[in-house]
Automatic annotation (TrEMBL):
Name used for this protein in its record: Cysteine desulfurase
Coiled-coil portions: none
Keyword rRNA-binding: no
Keyword Iron attached: yes
Organism: Actinomadura rudentiformis
Superkingdom, natural source: Bacteria
Length: 379
């Protein structure tokens, strides 16, 4: 049986989410904007789900909107904030290790005549707070900073950057896709985005939170749905399932998070002890509890992932030079670390210690075989 170690890509559907989804498919199918009985019932389900998500995030229900994905939440959050603050200026600040959804929106802004400043990171993948302070200008319209990195797990100094933004009266958008459900996000931000399938909810549900008194204007044509923020018919069953999964997942992570973190520590220690020419990347302490990333010299990441899949492990790589990108991970490049033979292990809810032990046991021989095939001999 394959051990699934790619929770950072998507977490398996939580049983609480599955049960809520099946129920909501029967009771929450009507148009929540209508006034007849079955529609009012669907509206109640939607409002209750909004309140449950808001409670976990520590915000007001009317600040929460549901999108079709985390990517859509990022795009709408960024472009809407930039659009609303055009009179202030058109300067955007992002970190060098943001998710591609943030960087793509930044590219759109730049092609439309805006200016973008990219803030560097250190070798652990953490942004330079001083560089953020230097980048802030009178015409800065928006700052974007992820809560934690999606490839190496390093937790970012959101609180410190939020304080800088507050003093400069500039909104901060936090992409919290990797941390929501696993840890609390520091306060001080103006906009927050997340994605339900990262915490065991169904795919196709994203979250966009816009705090009160934050200037935001939709970059899309007007629509009456979701407080005029998100166009289109609401996916009420998906939203209900997402809310149920988030509540259950957050409660479980309070107890299971430390156990997963200990398993990650085991991998962080075991990989360099048993494999030569390997680099474990990301902050070893201030990190997400479930994620560890390492890079092996003289090995192609895709080949190593295929070999591990054959051995019964589903993992991902940040350095997958696919036909789509033809280049290694922008995160690893920005950190200045090894990009070859990169493996990201992200443990899902309930990951077994025996599977982690087996992973550590089979990995050295897998790397040795691939290096031998490539004509490389290491001690």
């Amino acid at each position: 049986m394959t051990a699934y170690f790619d929770a950072a890509s998507t977490e398996p559907l939580h049983p609480a989410g599955r049960a809520a989804l099946l129920t909501a498919l029967e009771t929450g199918w009507a148009d929540p904007a209508r006034l007849y009985g079955v529609a009012r019932g669907t509206r109640m389900l939607l409002d209750q789900a909004r309140g449950r998500v808001a409670k976990v995030l520590g915000v007001r229900p009317d600040e929460v909107s549901f999108t079709t994905s985390g990517t859509q939440a990022v795009h709408l959050g960024m472009l809407g904030a930039l659009h609303a603050r055009r009179r202030v200026g058109r300067h955007l600040i992002v970190s060098a290790v943001e998710h591609s959804s943030v960087l793509h929106a930044a590219g759109t802004h730049e092609r439309d005549g805006g200016k973008v400043t990219t803030v560097p990171v250190d070798r652990e993948g953490r942004v330079d707070v001083a560089a953020f302070a230097e980048a802030l200008r009178p015409d800065t319209a928006l700052v974007c900073l992820q809560s934690a990195n999606h490839e190496v797990g390093t937790v970012q100094p959101v609180a410190e950057v939020a304080e800088l933004c507050r003093a400069a009266r500039v909104p901060l958008l936090v992409d919290a896709a990797q941390s929501v459900g696993r840890m609390d996000v520091p306060s001080g931000w103006s906009l927050l985005t997340a994605s339900a399938h990262k915490w065991g909810g169904p795919a196709g549900v994203g979250v966009l939170v816009i705090r009160k008194n934050t200037r935001w204007r939709s970059p899309l044509p007007s629509d009456e749905r979701e407080g005029r923020r998100i166009p289109g018919f609401e996916n009420v069953p998906g939203v209900v399932a997402a809310a149920a999964a988030l509540e259950a997942y957050r409660a479980e992570m309070a107890a299971d998070g430390p156990r997963l973190s200990a398993l990650v520590d085991q991998i962080r220690a075991g990989v360099p002890r048993t494999i030569s020419d390997v680099q474990v990347v990301g902050d070893p302490v201030v990190r997400l509890p479930h994620m560890v990333t390492f890079s092996c010299l003289y090995v192609e990441g895709e080949a190593l992932l295929t070999e591990l899949d054959r051995l019964g492990f589903a993992v991902s790589s940040g350095s997958s030079c696919t036909a789509d990108t033809l280049r290694p991970s922008h995160v690893l490049e920005a950190m200045g670390v090894i990009t070859h033979g990169n493996v990201r292990v992200s443990l899902p809810r309930g990951a077994k210690a025996t599977d982690v032990d087996r992973f550590i046991a089979v990995l050295p021989e897998a790397v040795t075989r691939l290096r031998r095939t490539a004509g490389v001999t290491t001690p």
